[in-house]
Amino acid sequence: MSDPEICTALPHDHSKMSNPEDPVHSDAEVSDDTGSSGEDSSEDDSSEDSSEEDSPEEDTSEEGRDIAWVPPKLAAVDMAYTIRELMPLDEHRQKDKFIFDFITSLRGRCPSPEDVLSNVNTASCFLLLVMQTASSNIPLKPQWKSLANLRAVVKQEIVRKTLANAVRCKTFMRMRCLGLWYEGY
Prior knowledge:
By secondary structure, the chain is mostly helical. The protein contains ten helices and two strands. Helix 5 crosses helix 7 and helix 7 packs across helix 8.
């Protein structure tokens, strides 16, 4: 069976691919530095968090909701680390058709890859639909269930480039299979 995303313009180095028996697929090596980035940021924010911890009532107020979530800085390795056989190919195709039909019914036409690359709102719409069609077998990380968080991550050019490539190829299989969306990956 051929990979529907073979038309991708992104560089692939298949020499670094994981074992076909492995449920996780990566086109790039994973460095040890990616897991430690979250720990460092908690130390930097400790002085800011102490004032918020003193009054837990503020978290439910309007001021608590105005605090912006800062998305992780994504790299090529994050956009290459995919989960093998997340769902059957036919299910991917059905979900891709749903996304394109939905976008076309809303806008009258499907946006071009250039529109996705240059417009954060258009890219956010596509990413939201990808998250809505994600696998139900593995839970999504909580941060990816928020439209504001999805919009924040789409501001990164690497995410918009990957989405634009998915629009060009007419499939979101790679985007849907990215390990960064799911718990435990």
